[in-house]
Structures are given as C-alpha cells and as structure tokens.
Amino acid sequence: MIVVGITGASGVIYGIRLLKALNGLNIENSLIISDAAKTVINHEVKEPIEDIITLADNYYEFDDLTASINSGSFKFDGLAIVPCSMKTLSSIANGYASNTITRVADVSLKEHRKTVIVPRETPLRSIHLENMLNLSKEGAVILPAMPGFYSDSDTVDDQINFIVGKILDSLNIENNIYKRWE
C-alpha cells in the first residue's frame, strides 16, 4: 500500500495523477489532503475534492492524529508527499509531527520505509535546501518536480507523466508512464 499526501503547494495535479496511476496499476493507496491543498485544488484543477477522494482506497483526515495510519504498527510500503510545501517539508525535517501528513512521514522515516518528497517551490532558500538535505540523510528521496525534456514531452500532460513515473520508480513500482532514455 502506498500513502499519498497532497499539501498546499502548486502542482496538486501531480498527486492526483499519482493516485490515478496507482489505481491503474491496481495498487492499494491511502490519501491525506491538507487544508491548504484543498484551497489549491480549487484553484488549479477542475475536479471536485470529493472526486479526488474517491480515487483513494482509504482516506484520512488531515487533523486526525489518532488515525491508525499514524502508528508505526500500521503497515504500508511507501509514502509520497506530492506536492510538498516548504512548510510540510520543514515540519518533517525538524520532527514536528503536528498533523496526519507530517506524522505519517515521521513514521515512514523512522520505520525506514520508502519516503518520496516532491517539493514545489522556486527559487529555494538555503533553509529549504538544508531541510531537503536533512531528509535525504534520513533516507527520503527528494524528487523535485523538474520534468526531463529528453522524453519527447510535447505536452504538459507528458511532463506531468514524467514526474509521476519518476515517483513510481522511486517507490520501486514498475510503470511505463513516461518514455525512458534510450
């Protein structure tokens, strides 16, 4: 099972497409959407939040620290926070597990599970880079939403698929969502 956290950064389409890809691959998933992400979703995509939630096999409220997913005894294979705001990234890097997304990230890291962070911010401050480095040192994969253009990405959809494919690769999930380097 893969946990997907969508936070309040631009690029919520990456998280939505990841959910769709997991469904297409018949991989069980769980979803957490931050309150700020709900605002961004309303601005960036045409899909109602309720429809996005139906893409998940399991949905957890953002502020439910008693949710089973927040325990190290809850089994999941990996976590992708996509997009990941700098606020969420900073909280995770500094051990501040104050909501369901940051708590499940804390669990994922402490249990040495695959943890993929897809930061969406530009330009980056030194503290952003230091927080990413700290998470990388703990075993997280830092996968900025930087599409590769070698894959014949003619459309925005192709560029989104490139990032989603790289996320799946980082979670060790076979996929053919994007054209690989030949």
TrEMBL record:
The keyword Lyase applies. GO terms for molecular function: carboxy-lyase activity; flavin prenyltransferase activity. It is an enzyme of class 2 (transferase). FMN binds at G8, A9, S10, S34, S85, M86, K87, T88, R120. The keyword Transferase applies. Transmembrane segments: none annotated. Residues 2-171 form the Flavoprotein domain. This is Flavin prenyltransferase UbiX. It comes from Methanobrevibacter smithii (strain ATCC 35061 / DSM 861 / OCM 144 / PS).
